[in-house]
Amino acid sequence: MANILHADMDAFFASVEQMDQPQLRGKPVMVGGLAKRGVIAAASYEARAFGVHSAMPTAQARRLCPQGVFLAPRMRRYAELSARIREIFYRYTPIVEPLSLDEAYLDVGASLRLFGSIGEIAEQLRAEVRERSGLAMSVGGGPGKLVAKIAGNKAKPDGLLIIEEHEVLDFLHPLAVSEIWGVGPATQAKLRAMGISTIGELAAAGAAELEAELGRWGPLLHGLASGEDLRSVECDRGRKSYGEENTFPEDAVDEEVIEATIIAHAHTVAGRLRRDGRSGRTVTLKFRPSGPGRDFRLFTRSKTLASPCDDGLEIAEVALALWRAETEHPPLRLVGVQLSLLDGNRPLQLGLFKSEESERRDALNRALDDITRRFGDKALQRGEGSI
Amino acid sequence: MNISVGREDFVKLLARAQGVIDRRHAMTILTNVVLEADDGRLTLLATDLEVSLLQWCPATVETPGSVALSSRKLFEVVRESASDTIELRVLDNLWVGVSYGRSSFKLTGIDPADHPGMPTSDADGEGSVSFEIEASALSEMIAKTVFSVSHDDTRSNLAGVYLCSAEKKGKLRMVATDGHRLALIDRKIKGDLPESGVILPRKGLAEIAKVLPEESGLVTVSIGRSEAVVKLSDSVLSMCLVEGTFPDYKQVMPKETPNVALLDRDDFLHTVRRVSLLSSERANGVRLSLSEGRLEINANNPDLGEANEDLEIDYSGAEIVVGFNARYLLEVLAVLPENSRVELCLGTELSPGVLRGEDSDYSYVVMPMRI
After folding, report:
1. Across the interface, do B369 and A353 touch by the CB < 8 Å criterion?
2. B179/A352 Cβ within 8 A
3. What CATH number labels B2-114?
4. What is the mean pLDDT of chain B?
5. pLDDT, position A164
6. In the CATH scheme, what is the code of domain B259-366?
7. What is the dihedral of CA B334, B335, B338, B344, to 10 degrees?
8. What pLDDT, on the 0 to 100 scale, is given for residue A238?
9. Which of A21, A307, B176, B336 meets the CB 3.0–4.6 Å disulfide criterion with B357?
10. By the CB < 8 Å criterion, does A238 face chain B?
11. Does the distance separating the beta carbons of A353 and B323 come in below 8 Å?
């Protein structure tokens, strides 16, 4: 039974820019790193006509399409729209596996009785996404992830293609092996040497032969080519931790910079915990010192709190204490803060002796979250030097 | 030392000593019990330096003396005796001969001078106070509070029962809380209470609770700056007070709980126990839904299933749904008398609930769970 959908926003970053800036519509728009060694993250369909595609070095794109509009990404805006789109997905099924901001698998097997056939669900999703975000989304569907993803690619732009179980082999077999995710130039070359260039030829080859050539990947590939795809859609429910980390553009030496970064990470993590209605007890500080003789080892230091916490200030205090007690010293290449030992979002045992202090913080956090939800996370920023 | 002592007395004393002695104590000498015989009496001392128990029983003393030896081993040896009397004799090189019937044991003893002995107490010193209380009342007070003491190592100020004077003159108050629920009881005493409250450690109270049922009449409690001592008919138990400030418990006693339900204690206890079979293991939550004349209790666990039960009760307040940790309800219901009525007073689904029996001097406050 076809029950898996692959949803993919068309030229997501570029489409968002064209929506937000109407004068860009109809023009070749490329979003990506504009610096010397930048790479294109998304190209509008107009730009693709010039041969530009994502992951292409920006310099090369500029040569192919000199008249194009090159923009730096606005990740916050994309994330905001992505969250809005994901909320629509969750209305149809709880089993959503986001692959990136603009791409996700959905298992709608249990939703068929509620919302109609898989094709009807996919159409409703596309219409709702267009209505609520103004953007086009292509959807592929099938009995497995591979088929759903390939179908989605074939449906682009702004299309829908469902492959029913009995159509799977007819659909897959004429396609080139490179359509299978993970089959890159190296695997393609090996397969070509075996006389295999289509998925059909791959399915016809012996599994043992493929194993000899490709190792464990061989039988797996053979199975996929034969329509066996048992990988399930992995949703986020089993999440074990929330974390935020960064690699400094240049190794951080200044204690103030390091501490400010730790504090910022603590607040980011706390905000995400509260957004998901969760809290955690173990605060972990991660850091990677750099410099001669320190071979980039990653250090972690943890402390488990007596009760679950979703407050940035409390997390920051614990993480800072861990850092200050540390004998390793800057320069640091990376620093991160993580919260684990998560309590389920519910049930939560309430405490008798909430100090006034913690009640004030709770009220403050609720107000902050509300403002962030309404005006975006740029609306409010912590002052410099505050925890 | 050469004595004979009744088996029953000796087993009783040794059994109590096991509770005080910490077998994993860093000072291994403290795993020993100190025996001292004199004047027709055998005295046993057991301590972990925080809680100390001195006990005595009659003995036929041929030669007075003292010795220390493994509390655990001596208890096991004596407990196995079928004979009514036990002979104890200190031999050369501190061997201790224990014999009864046709059995004889030789246990390694230790010089009692190596044992730190009974810690000196300030509970009878200057600034100390003492009061007398019925043994049965003290026993009841401990039983009705000690289960609420915190087991969280990071909150040492909650690791004991708070003892202070009640608003009503001549009454002692005991309060225990783990931060999620709180038990409070008042009982009559004769004598003086310390001006500011003190915290008695859970372990010391648990040991007294074991001895109290055998007592009758009044027992004496003395409280000094850092220790409390309870004097019983055949023993003295002293304990170090827990340091730290007990939280302001009065602040969490709800002043208004508009929704009051009257329930049969036994029905309530058994229903919560049955329904909680299907609550999740970690959180142990049950949901109580009150509506006119009716209490519905349910629990569900995504991995196991769900349970529902309803009770006809006396209730005419607002419709309200509140989640609680089932254990917090069961533990208090277990110490309330059978065949009695309990009052369940609720505010909102996020404010503390109060449980009371027919005795207005005992209250239990419990915070809900967000389910």
Report:
1. no
2. yes
3. 3.10.150.10
4. 93
5. 93
6. 3.10.150.10
7. -80
8. 61
9. B336
10. no
11. no
Per residue in B276-332, pLDDT (tens digit) is 999 876 678 999 999 999 999 999 886 788 899 999 999 999 999 999 999 999 999
A55 shares contact with chain B (CB less than 8 Å)? no
- The answer on A112 and A27 residing in a single domain is yes
Instruction: Give residue B278's pLDDT.
Output: 92
| Contact list, A346 vs chain B (CB under 8 Å) | 370-371
pLDDT value for A160: 95
In which domain, by residue range, is A265 found?
Answer: 241-375
- A353 → chain B, closest CA residue: B179
Q: How many CA atoms lie within 13 A of A348 on its CB side?
A: 20
Phi, psi of B204 (to 5 degrees): -60, -45
Number of A:B CB contacts under 8 A? 43
Write the pLDDT tens digit of every residue in A9-21: 999 999 999 999 9
CATH no. for B129-251: 3.10.150.10
Q: So what's the ipTM on this one? A: 0.80
Q: In this structure, are A159 and A84 located in the same domain?
A: yes
Contact status of A344 with chain B (Cβ, < 8 Å): yes
Do B249 and B162 form a contact (C-beta atoms < 8 A)? yes
- A40 burial type by CB count under 10 A (0-12 exposed, 13-18 middle, 19+ buried): buried
Residue from A142, A146, A101, A102 nearest A122 by CA: A142
Nearest to B371 among A347, A351, A353 (CB): A347
Interchain contact A349–B (C-beta under 8 A): yes
pLDDT of B229 above 60: yes
User: What does pTM read for this prediction?
Assistant: 0.62
User: Which single residue is written with the structure tokens 């025996």?
Assistant: B35
List A residues 297-326 in contact with B (Cβ-Cβ < 8 A).
306
CATH code, domain carrying A266: 3.30.1490.100
Q: How far is A153 from chain B (nearest CA, A)?
A: 37
Are A48 and A137 in the same domain? yes
Q: How many domains does chain A have?
A: 3
Would you call A103 a catalytic residue per the annotation? yes
Domain of A119, CATH number, reads 3.30.70.270
The answer to whether the beta carbons of residues B106 and B93 sit under 8 Å apart is no
Task: Give CA–CA dist A156/A151, Å, rounded.
Answer: 9
Q: Are residues A46 and A140 in the same domain?
A: yes
Mean pLDDT of A191-205: 90
Q: Which is nearest to A58 in space by CA: A82, A40, A80? A: A40
Determine the distance in angstroms separating the CA of A345 from the nearest CA of chain B, rounded to an integer.
9
